[in-house]
Amino acid sequence: MRTTLFLVFGFTFLVSCNFSKHDGYSITYSGLHYKYNFIGDGEKTPVEGDYIQFSIVVSTMNDSILYTNNRSATGMAKWVKFNNSVKGAIQEALGMMIKGDSLSLIIESENIKLEPFAFAQFIPEREDIVKAELVL
Description:
Blueprint: H1 2-16, E1 26-27, E2 33-38, E3 51-52, E4 55-59, E5 65-68, E6 80-81, H2 90-94, E7 102-108, H3 109-112, E8 129-135
Antiparallel strand pairs: 1-2, 2-7, 3-6, 4-5, 4-8, 7-8
């Protein structure tokens, strides 16, 4: 009986874990690799139609910066309307965050190019995956 109970709990644990091929990262069902760097003190995640502001740095896997909005006067992007229609990229990650959260992401380039943000144009064709650092 103990062995059966142990196997059931062990199997449940393994099935519920989100294993990523990148050390320290979890993965969503859509393939977005993410890691929380800091947990904020906000009260809710954004919902469809909310206007949000976030800071972002997009780089290659070798840390060459492709885009950042941290050099603007406010250090934050313009207000954007949240739309969680693109899975596996920035919008999905923003939907998981509360104010003050910091996330590291590893994103397939083809997914980030579907995003409605201007920085998607800065992703070179040769890059299969990119990293992004987000702060909401």
